[in-house]
Structures are given as structure tokens and as C-alpha cells.
Amino acid sequence: MTEPVPGRRSTALSAALIVAAGAIFFAALTPPIISMSIRVFGLDPEGKTLGLSSILLIGSVLAVLGAPFFGSLSDRTRGRFGRRKPWLVAGAALMLVGGVVCGLAPNIAVVAIGWGIAQLGFSAAISSFFALIPDLIPEHLRGRVSGGIGLVTSLVVLGGVTFASQNVTNPVLMMTVPGIVAFVFVIALVFFVGDADVVQSGLPLTRFGIREFFGSFFINPVKNRDFAWNWISRFLFGISMVGLQTYATYFLIDAVHLEVQDAAAHYAAVTALSTPVAIFCFAASGWLSDRLGRRKLFVVAAAIVCAIGFGVAAISPTATGFMVAFLVLTVGQSFYLTVDVAIAASVIPEPTQAAKAMGVYQVSTTAPGLVVPILGALILTSAGAYVPFFIILAAAALLSSLTILLVRRVR
Length: 411
Fold this sequence. Notes:
Elements: H1 7-43, H2 48-76, H3 85-104, H4 108-136, H5 139-165, H6 171-193, H7 210-215, H8 225-254, H9 260-292, H10 296-315, H11 319-346, H12 354-366, H13 368-379, H14 386-404
């Protein structure tokens, strides 16, 4: 099997992974955070909430099924090109194709098809990408890698929101460029990883039949309790994050009463204001987490801060209230994402099946996309409905802090 790379090489590889993660998440997060809501509004302004919820729900179903499946295939892949790199490249290519389809789509149904293609690509790419961390990165660097990924994620969220807000009237450009960026940087990462991804110990090929197919989606929670509790914690916190990201633009339109272009511009301005806060939090907490050897503390702190942020949003449905709430939520999300991947990499059950484990873990980050659109469609029937919606998101964040305390293998 592959072994963590030593010394300066591991530091350089950590930096390369962080940069590539930014490109992948630029393509994966920009649509659900802002550009998809703009795209749907342009095609069906009256049915925007149901249309957006339906598209994201379909994409989430495919992502939930795709991540562990592609992860298992990656673990079984042998060849001179490596185990992870083929799926990274294929996944990035599908993300690009899906973005093109979304940009050219004449109606909601075709947008849904394009987003489904993109989500399958993201599943293939991200399950293999995250497997590279336990494959190649030593334990003492994983907190900084996780924090670095969180940091660049905040930067690409700013970049994505800014980019989309400036291309509201150009859907093809808005939906396609993020996929191009992801594909280019994934190719660069593949060349940088080189032979480090090639299996060195001649791991045997195993049968991949019906039983193995369904086994791709399951890790025994009784035998692997730490993995299970961490999965549940990430799922609950994901509900709060996805809920904010998905409906922030419509909150500004429906509750704050801004026009769509003004809502996009305000979202971009608030994101720009919050980005330096995120950078500071990621840099400080990532270093501190590795220094202290503590991970769970940051999850608990993140949950409490996010609950406060949702409370602000619930009681102050104004442009200023949204800005304050978003800043508070940025602090909470930064603390959580600092240790997110580091915890997951530390509780995988079997190192030889790292991609399967990270694929199953990735389901905890995509499964909230199944829950949130349903909540949005059922609850967000009026501007006043954002209050109970934000209360539910706050409760999910707080529950995530309780479940992470049940993980024993990580401090």
C-alpha cells in the first residue's frame, strides 16, 4: 500500500492538496451557494424555491450514492497511473461537462440533469482526493491540511459569490468557468502527486460483485463507533451549513426584500467582509489544533458560535442583520472545518480501504443536501418562515457538538 511521504515532500504535497481542494470546491460549492439559485430564478422566478430544492435534492441523491461507490472502486484500482488519480481526472471532467449542461439548459429539467452529472463527477473526484490525505500525509500535518482546506474553501466561496454576482446575465459563463478551474488544477495535482499514488506493496485485487457493491455504502457502526459518531456529527453540522448556503440568496430576496441582482451583490459584499475573519480563524485554529493535539474542542466551539449566528438571523431579517449573522457563522464554520478532515482521517477503520471510508464519510457532507431541500420546500412558504428554519439549523449544529463527544479515538 502507499505510505505517507516524508519530510519536505509531505509539506509540499500538503500545499498542493490544499490548492487543488480550493479548485474542486470552487466548482462544487459555487452553484448551490449562489449561481444555481440565480440560474433557477432566471428560468422560473415564480417556482424558484421548489425548482431549486428539486435540483439540489436530485444532485444530493446522486452524490450520496456516488461517493462511497467511487471510493470503493478507487481502492480496487491498480495500474501505473495509481489508485486515486484516474478517478480525480474523470470526476473533474464530469464536473466540467455538468456545468456546461447547466449553463446551456433551456429549462429546469435539463438543469437538473446537468447538476446530476456534475455531482457524480464531484463524488468521484472528492472521494479519491480525500483518500490521498490518509494515504500520503503524516498524522502531525493533518490538522494543518484540514485547516488549509477550510481556509481556501472560504476564499473560493468569496470568489464564487463574487464571480456569480458579476455574471447574473451570463448563465453559460457563470456555470461553466468553475468546472474549467477545477479540471485544470486537478490535472496539475495529478502531475504533482506522480508515483506517490502508485500502490507499492502489490495489494491483491478483490472481487467486486453485488455484495461488494452494496458494501461500498456501509461501514459497520457497531464495530467502528468512532467513525459512526463522527459521521453523525458531520451530518448534523452539515445540515446547518447547507441550510444557510442554499437559501441565503432567497432570504435576501424574500425576507430582506432585495432584487435578485442586489441580493447577489449584497451576498458578495458580506462574503468579502467575512473572508479575512475566516482566514484568521483557520490559520490560528489549524495551528492550535495540531499544537494541542485536540480536535473535538473546536467542534463544540463551532456549534455554539453557529447557534448564536442563526439566532441573530432569526430575530433580525435585515441586510445588517444578515451581515452580522454571516460574520458570526463564518467564525463557527471556520472552527469546524479546521478539524473536519483531520478527524475523519484519524477514525477510518481500515487504511487499505481509505477511499471507501472517506467516500462513506463524504456522504455525511452530501446527505444534508437531501434533508435541507425538503425542509426548505416544506417550511419556507413565506418570509416569516425563515425564523423556524433558522432555529432548526441552530439545533442541528448544537446536536453535532454532543455526538462528537462520543468519539473516543480523537481528543
